[in-house]
TrEMBL record:
Species this protein is from: Steccherinum ochraceum
CDD domains in the record: GH7_CBH_EG
Protein name (record): Glucanase
Signal peptide coordinates: 1-17
Pfam families for this protein: Glyco_hydro_7
Organism phylogeny: Eukaryota, Fungi, Dikarya, Basidiomycota, Agaricomycotina
Keyword terms: Carbohydrate metabolism, Cellulose degradation, Glycosidase, Hydrolase, Polysaccharide degradation, Signal
Length: 453
């Protein structure tokens, strides 16, 4: 939801860059994943992951001087967008030592806080086919499955796995000033149209840059970067949600002013249509010792059904299943006044949910599932991350939100976390050793990616 709050804490620099530095070699950690045709019949793909550019050191092309320090640009190096892009270079990453990222076979472990030479908080990575291109998934009439361990993620943290309609090459072909591309994790976009990105469309986001008052490392510029986003998984040990967020854009698109926000003038639906079992009325389904027991790893299965059961059809339903200890667990059903007993995301569910909760139906206004499916048909990039939330303390996932609303009103009570929880400074101290592990990623026709005992 508020993924733009992702930051790294470093005495180096935290920024998007479009030139390429030479101080650290960029070596992408290998990560295998599988393509299936039937249960137990899967082929292994040798993929890689790349760290998002926002975590990397941004420095002068011919030296070590920071172009961006704390939450401020160097005015002499970056007086404007074009000059900054020419002066500044993005460098390679020490994945484990600096960023707490460990890839082993089909498993990717992301540590929350890493205290190396510099302190780093969170990370965001993309699955690649090659060293210069992201893998493009086309999920229509497909099933996407992965294993996850959220056992150490408390209130306020989010282990998120999702699809964004990014360019396969990170924007290099469309924007000639982008010399770094997918190899260095450029080209990010999502349905929040984040304005904290340091570079968008090959240019520095320095115009109107305003440092954040509650973060020593981030700020916002005049530009944002929008695209349709499918949150397959946003979760900690307390709560989980899956949420499509359609945008009216065709792929990654720069926004300014009101285009970057929700509402009638925005390009995207930042709220989306979420299915959070707790928010939907089943408070005993997901959590420690519950039906889906978050003290142990489990398998998450997401099915993207089309109206004609083909890979070229219109997206009509998004279903969720879990598998734990060999048992298939059907998704919970809604138990909210005004809602039928839904257990999946459809346009009818989204319309009924928005009415029951008194929310504007931006989901329908931005094209609903049909528009989400159009994004899938073009191809989407897999994003894997861990983050805390400087904008809203993750309360929209695991607590009462909005905090000034009556908690007894439908849709407000989203989890049992206190409204005082999730403050980044607190979480970064008390949960420094938290991590999320994603493993055994599989994709294939409906019913092909999982088995039960």
């Amino acid at each position: 939801m508020h993924r733009s709050a992702l930051v790294a804490l470093s005495t180096l620099a935290v920024a998007y860059a479009q030139q390429v530095g030479t101080q650290t070699a960029e070596v992408h950690p290998p990560l295998t994943w599988q393509t299936c045709t039937a249960p137990g019949s899967c082929t292994t793909n040798n993929g890689k992951v790349v760290l998002d550019a926002n975590w990397r050191w941004l420095h002068t092309t011919d030296g070590y001087t920071n172009c961006y320090t704390g939450n401020t640009w160097d005015a002499s190096l970056c007086p404007d967008a074009e000059t900054c892009a020419a002066n500044c270079a993005l460098d390679g990453a020490d994945y484990t030592g600096t960023y707490g990222v460990t890839a082993t076979g089909s498993s990717l472990k992301l540590n929350f806080v890493t205290n190396g030479a510099n302190k780093n908080v969170g990370s965001r990575l993309y699955l690649m086919d090659t060293d210069t291109s992201y893998h493009m998934f086309k999920p229509l009439n497909q099933e996407f499955t992965f294993d996850v361990d959220v056992s150490t993620l408390p209130c306020g943290l989010n282990g998120a796995l999702y699809f964004s309609e990014m360019d396969a090459d990170g924007g290099m072909a469309r924007f000639p000033t982008n010399k770094a591309g997918a190899k260095y994790g450029t080209g990010y976009c999502d349905s929040q149209c984040p304005r904290d990105l340091k570079f968008i469309n090959g240019m520095a986001n320095v115009e109107g840059w305003t440092p954040d008052s509650n973060s020593a490392n981030s700020g916002t510029g005049n530009m944002g970067s929008c695209c349709s986003e499918m949150d397959v998984w946003e979760a900690n040990s307390m709560d989980a949600a899956y949420t499509p967020h359609p945008c009216s854009t065709d792929g990654q698109t720069e926004c300014t002013d009101d285009q970057c926000t929700g509402g009638t003038t925005g390009l995207c639906d930042p709220a989306g249509c979420d299915f959070n079992s707790f928010r939907m009325g089943d408070e005993t389904f997901y959590g420690s010792g519950l039906t889906v027991d978050t003290t142990q790893p489990f398998t998450v299965v997401t099915q993207f059904l089309t109206s004609d059961n083909t890979t070229s059809g219109t997206l009509s339903e998004i279903r969720r299943l879990y598998v734990q200890n060999g048992q298939v667990i059907q998704n919970s059903k809604t138990s909210v006044a005004g809602l039928d007993a839904y257990d999946s995301i459809t346009d009818d569910f989204c319309s009924a949910q928005k009415t029951a909760f008194g929310d504007d139906n931006l989901f329908a206004a931005q094209g609903g599932l049909q528009q989400m499916g159009a994004s899938f048909a073009k191809g989407v990039v897999l994003v894997l991350s861990i983050w805390d939330d400087y904008a809203a303390n993750m309360l929209w996932l695991d607590s009462d939100y909005p905090t000034d609303a009556d908690a007894s009103s439908p849709g407000v009570h989203r989890g049992n976390c206190a409204t005082t929880s999730g403050v980044p400074a607190d979480v970064e101290s008390s949960a420094a050793n938290a991590y999320v592990t994603y493993s055994n990623i599989k994709v294939g026709p409906i019913g092909s990616t999982f088995t039960s005992s």
